Fold:
Amino acid sequence: MHAIKNNWWKIAGIALVVYVIAGGLLFEVPDLPVLRESIRNIYFHVGMWFGMIFILFMSVVFSLRYLARSRPEDDLRALAAVKVGLLFGLLGLLTGMLWARFTWGDYWVNDPKLNGAAVGMLIYLAYIVLRSSLEDPEKRARLAAVYSVFAFVLFFVFIMILPRTASVSIHPGVDGNPALATGDLAPEMRWVFYPAMLGWFIMSWWLYRLFYRMSRIEIKIREIRENQNNQI
Structure:
């Protein structure tokens, strides 16, 4: 009972994702031109991207906390959040490419929204490369924290602002938030879409906690090995 009480949100997250998978595949959806059955992908593609934005925002929060307090734990938390954000971003790109194949006829088209998303992912990959190029822990953490803040701002610009200033884009949501604006989503789809949003948020947070714990374990193992080597 104590375990259930402490992990109720994990159970809720699993239940939501299972419900979304079942509902996404089986529940009724409107028969729209071009989209047809591919509209079911909205529960996964959009949900994963929003989960990615949420966890990347948390990486900014942890980075700012590190700059304010210089605690190594906050640096580890920011790194774990970025790793999960990249994972969700990759899944979002893959589901988006699959959707594009069935609606636009190709896995990738020259569209400002798609290109902006790809550039945004590269910006965060550069964050990982930056960290691996610096050996001094304190300098690495501080520089990475500053980069993380600017990376999120640039990422938001590339996926939200620049596509809306472009003259032509076939990606939904250029004039607003897809599926969130009034009239964008069929009533019967809301029973799956909103639980999907919450479910992916919870899963992104759960994965972040797992990545953070793995990082701490790796550090402990490294410290133990270094102590053993010093004693030899």
Q: What stands out?
A: The CA atoms of residues 116 and 157 lie 8 Å apart. The mean pLDDT is 86.
